[in-house]
Amino acid sequence: MLNLENFSVSFGQKNVLNQLNFSAGSGEKLSIIGPNGCGKSTLALAISGVIPDFIQADVSGKVFCENSVIIMQNPSSQFFAMTVKEELGETGMAFAKRFGLNDLFDRNVFQLSEGERQKVNLVANLSLDPELLLLDEPLELLDPVEANRFKALLSKVEGKTIVWFDKEDPKILSARKVFLGDCKKQRLPKKKVRRLHGTALKADFLVKKEDFCIRADFSMQNQEKIALIGRNGCGKTTVLKTIAGIEKFSGKVSFSGRPSFVPQNPSHLFFNETAEAELAEPGNAKKLGISHLLKQNPAALSKGQQKLLSVATIKSEERGLALLDEPTTWLDQKNKSAVYKFITESTHPMVIATHDRKLLQYCDRVFLVEGGEMRACSSTAANRFFQK
Ligand SMILES: Nc1ncnc2c1ncn2[C@@H]1O[C@H](COP(=O)(O)OP(=O)(O)OP(=O)(O)O)[C@@H](O)[C@H]1O
Ligand SMILES: [Mg+2]
After folding, report:
1. Cys-Cys link to 147, which of 64, 75, 142, 284 (CB 3.0-4.6 A)?
2. What pTM was estimated for this model as a whole?
3. Which listed ligand is nearest to 329 at the C-alpha?
4. pLDDT single digits (tens) 66-118
5. Is the peptide bond before 130 cis (omega within 30 degrees of 0)?
6. What is the whole-number distance in angstroms between the Cα of residue 292 and the centre of ligand 1?
7. Is 1:24 a contact under the CB 8 Å cutoff?
8. Rounded distance between C-alpha atoms, residue 158 and residue 150, angstroms
């Protein structure tokens, strides 16, 4: 079903995969585990043929596989149609109903939240009835409820070979594990306790869209870190974009200076030829452990490396408001810890949309975005949300 012999991939001088040998029989489940930048996506793309057919690379050795589909790490790059209905087709729609995706059928795929997009992508591919399913971190953009639903659905898929690429053991389907690199356990940094004083932001607004509205009324203090949690598509990103001034709203938002907005999808942010040129504050690269990547083209970085670079782009004004959309998605434990440390040591007031439970302990307050509102929530309520 899948067989690799002495399989290597290099991008120019950079050798990413070196002489890999492994195979998976029909119906077998395999987890391929390794840290950011070790070559997981490169391997998934090479098995599916995207490398070297669409992405140039030097490939040697042998790879054999049958009738495969790939769920890429960034679902936005996999759409062709405009509406969800068109993307799914008849078979896909029947399949998607089992996932409760009916409400999304008439939506424009480019207006879906990243999590919603990932779900559509998953079911569209599953409905093609492939022999081999290549999943590149498929849960990464899903909220806890959707992640559990996806795992449950996958446990019902029989007779297919599944290769799941991830940073840690996804603990699925009693899969055989192949390690592509070292994933050492990481100590979490300590939260820095600060005296909060003075108002950094006041917001009281309503955003109304065709099929969705969100109201927010809150203020925050200098240096304060606020987390926004909530289901996929609940409006966390809309809240951040409204504060950033890129979403129409009625009401009032006031703060001083220009905000830094770090979007969920890092590739939307970069337009320079080197990582270095993207940074307003070069010191951020060292703090986030990416000094060695500064001469590289941001487009050629792995997703985790791009995420770190995007967080590093926040502006240098000490008190400038920073709006971070999922700053730890796609990061391995070591890099997550670097971001926690960066956040807790930062003097910027920050509003952070996140699905990362551990990140909450570095925030001063947590808000749950639900039913068109944004409400302060206790740690018990936040825990309940993550246990769903
Ligand atoms: N098109 C490309 N050109 C040059 N280098 C590349 C290209 N694509 C990936 N790389 C490099 O290859 C290495 C492996 O990247 P890859 O995306 O496979 O890692 P990964 O294990 O999937 O990481 P992540 O966990 O961050 O998704 C990285 O150092 C990356 O910078
Ligand atoms: Mg990857």
Report:
1. 142
2. 0.91
3. 1
4. 899 999 988 777 888 889 999 898 888 988 888 778 889 999 888 887 778 88
5. no
6. 14
7. yes
8. 14
